[in-house]
Amino acid sequence: MPGSLLVVIAYILLAVFLVVFVYRTYSIAKLPVHLRWELAPIPHEKGKSHYGGSYFEEFEWWTKPREKSLVNEATYMFQEILFLKSLWEHNRKLWWFSFPFHFGMYVLIAAGGLLVIGTVLSLLGVTDSALAGLGVVVGPVAAVGFVLGGIGAIGLLFKRMTDARLKAFTTPMGLFNLVLLLAVFATGIYSFLALDGFADNVSEFVGAVFTANTALATSGVLATHLVLALVFMAYLPFTQMMHFMAKYFTYHQVRWNDTPLQVGGKMEQEVQKLLQQPMTWSAPHINADGKKNWVDIATAEVGK
Ligand code: HEM
Fold this sequence. Notes:
The protein has helices at residues 3-29, 70-83, 85-90, 92-123, 129-162, 164-167, 172-194, 198-211, 220-235, 243-255, 266-275, 294-299. By secondary structure, it is mainly alpha-helical. The structure holds protoporphyrin IX containing FE. Protoporphyrin IX containing FE is lined by residues 80-81, 84, 87, 94, 98, 102, 105, 156, 160, 174, 177-178, 241, 243-244, 247.
């Protein structure tokens, strides 16, 4: 594939990723306040999260300052993101494959980040031995990521196609996501083994993207891997794989949001606005005619 085409493809697919990712993140962040769950334990409850307690236990809690522990919260997030702790506790059979699958991707993201930093520094003329060492390390690190990701993806595919309980929750799109990722990992490890200096070759490509260098010469095997990785990136924000970002909101705005609703506060104003929305549920016993709002229906006498 001509280098100029590869660079243009990279611009288009990276732009799609960036625009859709920002748009979807913004849309999720703007969603209305969630129905309160108040599910314990909430990790940021200082001194209480380990037994599932909350500030509501305090006598006249509303008169006291709320104490939060960012360390507890960060520890929980670290274990959940890096080790998928909840999956380990609740679905261990899936964890054995999901963990290497995710960990492999994290390793690749880290390797990719290092590679981009190294390339930018060398474009800026910073050349020292540490930077040269970086190039040597990134290749093998990426190879570990490809292997872990590949093992995980094959295992997850196998489980999803053979486990009767999982089959019920498995969609064609879910399988396609795994196959696409497997293709990225497989072409990645193949490129690593087939090429002399995998990281240097990828670094040349990254440099060409930064400098719009269309004279880039890339081997067919690496071009295939790079196009697949870029297609995956552009496709990701359209799918449920946005969960890596959506989880922030699921935890912080839904599961762990225990901020009390105060009269005259921002949340009260938001809730008041939502309660004015008309209801169109078809259930006859609540008489939702599309004109009555939530307050009308919640305060109406039953049967009227
Ligand atoms: C790098 C970004 C990520 C991508 C591309 C990604 C991709 C995926 C995919 C494709 C699946 C479905 C696997 C299957 O078929 O079973 C999945 C499941 C899952 N992911 Fe992620 N994920 C990412 C980040 C995260 C993060 C940061 C977390 C934790 C905070 C996480 C937690 C989970 C959990 C709990 C499941 C369900 C278990 C499973 O189905 O394997 N993921 N992810």
